[in-house]
Predict the 3D structure of the following.
Amino acid sequence: MKCKVAVVEKMGAPFKIEEMELAEPKEKEVRLKVMTCTICHSDIHGIRGEHGPYEGCATAGHEIAGIVDAVGPGVTYVKPGDRVVCAIIRAGCGTCDPCLHDRTWFCENIPPLKFREPGPYTRADGSVPIQTGSSATGFAEYCNCHESTLCKIDDDIPFPVASAMSCGFITGFGAVINRCRVKPGESVAVIGCGGVGISAIQGARISGACPIIAIDVMDNKLELAKKCGATHTINPKYCDVREEIRKINKYGADYTIIAVAAEGIKRQAMDITAPWGTVCIIGHARFEDEMMTDISAMEFLTGKKFTGSVMGALNLRRDFPKYMEMYRNGLIDIDCMLTNRYTLEQINEAFYDAEHGAVKNIIVIGGE
Ligand SMILES: [Zn+2]
Ligand SMILES: [Zn+2]
């Protein structure tokens, strides 16, 4: 079928909207009518080649909520008409050794997602864009995805909310809940208060953490962090983060969540974390920009830990329904993170705004 897709001609170029031919869904693949796709900072990195270079034209968008339009051979989980999110994690097979140990990310029976690989679209000139941040393309009217990446969403969950939850939210929230398993009264510092950081703060609040310290250079994000549960805020533009943290907690934070990629951040995170505490990295840049040559192995002798979390260490179809229920009951706030709405044609403006202070911008494609 033919549909509109946002495409960049080469790494770093602006998007343009083109009509392209979308291939029929293959074995275990599903065609989605994309309703909304929120912008994740990974989209910005991905399309610029900052998560890895690529040749030729490319598409993006991975926080996808939509409606199943057609199913390929062998699909059993969904049928046309189902409302779903498409995530960049797989629901595991449930029977292999990693799945039985709640490590569905490493499932042996479902093919791993492919990034920066040619997608299912063919342009008028015959070229095939690669898909940058996912194995699907959310900035398009229709996309194909593997059924293992889908989770059904309830009728009362708005598409923009489901979109925002599908990556940014679960990444931050899950890092605190599933990876760090923060306990009541423990202290949590969150560096970077975009969509992921704000979600980590909500995870800390739900866990009963105290104090919850939000760190960001943008005051509007710190304001939002306060609304979402931060007990303290620090803007590094006006003070020394290391000194400020010790005024709040003399030992440093039990947990420091890194939800942004920037120079010197890991060093700073180590410095503001208690000697027994844990640094958990979520936000990252290019592989080669993430070498940690300024951290000594000696720093771990006191029991300090450095770990990471990908996609909130989530079990997709077990945890996503729980989070929808928490949203429904007002325990978590997704709407407060949703900043502005744009059409697919306004995607360049939406990306610009996402980079300049918006927490979570929404591209509305099929409707809300
Ligand atoms: Zn994302
Ligand atoms: Zn498995």
